[in-house]
Design brief:
Length: 225
C-alpha cells in the first residue's frame, strides 16, 4: 500500500473519532514513525504531505535526516541517552521522551543560542515495569523543576499505553494523562505551556484521539513495519 492510501484511511478514521467527540481534526498532528522503514519509504511519507517524522533511536535516523533534512520536522520518540544529545539536538525539533532531570540539563547545555527544544514529559501512567517515564504523582514537581533549563520548553505530556487487543481497555490511561496535562496547563507556566498530548499508536489511536491526543505516533498502519 502506498503511504498516500494509508494516510487517506488514517485521516478518515481520525476524522470520525473527532466527530464522535466534537473535536477539530486540525488539532490532531500525525507523526509518521519511520523506525522500521527505509529512507525511500520515509521520503514517500513526506511526499504524501506528512510534515512530522518520528524515530526512536539515533542509529538509522541520522541517515534519514541527511536525506530528508528540513523537508520534515523530526521527533525523537524513544529513550534518549544523555551522551547522545549532542548528536541529535540540531536535527530534532521535538523530544517525546523527557523523563529525567539529567536529560533536561544536557539538552540545555547542548542547545544553540536561543534554541528551544519542544519537549513532552514521558509519563508511565500504566505503572508497567518495562515502560519508561516518570510516575504520575511526580509530574508536577518535575515540570516545576524545568524552570532552570531555558532551552527546554514543556509543550505537553506523552505516554505509551500497554498493548491491548481491545483498545477500550487502555482508555483510562489516556484519560489520566489528559487530567495530568490539564493540571500543569492550568498553572500557566511560561516555560511549560503544556497544551499538548502525545498519545496513541497504530493499535489505539482512535481511543487516544477521543481522549484528547494532539500528536499521535503512527508507524505500522501508515508507513509499514
Ligand atoms: C514504534 C513506536 C510507535 C509506533 O508504533 P506503531 O504501533 O507501529 O504505530 C509509537 N511510539 C513509540 C514510542 C514507538 O516506539
Amino acid at each position: 500500500m502506498s503511504v498516500k492510501d494509508n494516510l487517506q484511511k488514517l485521516e478518515s478514521r481520525i476524522g470520525k473519532a473527532c466527530e464522535r467527540t466534537g473535536r477539530s481534526a486540525d488539532d490532531v498532528h500525525i507523526v509518521a514513525v519511520t523506525k522500521y522503514v527505509s529512507i525511500e519509504r520515509a521520503k514517500e511519507a513526506v511526499q504524501a504531505g506528512i510534515g512530522h517524522l518520528g524515530e526512536n533511536r539515533l542509529e538509522g535516523a541520522m541517515e534519514k535526516y541527511e536525506a530528508i533534512g528540513s523537508g520534515a520536522e523530526w521527533h525523537f520518540i524513544g529513550s534518549l541517552q544523555s551522551r547522545k544529545v549532542k548528536e541529535m539536538i540540531h536535527a530534532y525539533s521535538y523530544v517525546h521522551s523527557l523523563d529525567r532531570t539529567s536529560l533536561a540539563k544536557e539538552i540545555n547545555k547542548r542547545a544553540s543560542e536561543g534554541q528551544k527544544m519542544k519537549c513532552f514529559v514521558q509519563v508511565n501512567v500504566s505503572g508497567e515495569e518495562s515502560k519508561s517515564g516518570i510516575k504520575p504523582d511526580e509530574v508536577m514537581d518535575f515540570v516545576l523543576s524545568m524552570e532552570k533549563y531555558p532551552a527546554v520548553e514543556i509543550i505537553g505530556l506523552m505516554t505509551m499505553a500497554p498493548y491491548a487487543e481491545n483498545p477500550e481497555e487502555v482508555r483510562h490511561y489516556f484519560k489520566h494523562l489528559r487530567e495530568l496535562r490539564d493540571k500543569v496547563k492550568d498553572k500557566k507556566l511560561p516555560y511549560a505551556p503544556c497544551t499538548e498530548l502525545s498519545m496513541g499508536m497504530s493499535n489505539d489511536f482512535e481511543v487516544a484521539v477521543e481522549e484528547g491526543a494532539t500528536y499521535i505516533r503512527i508507524g505500522s498502519i501508515l508507513v509499514g513495519e
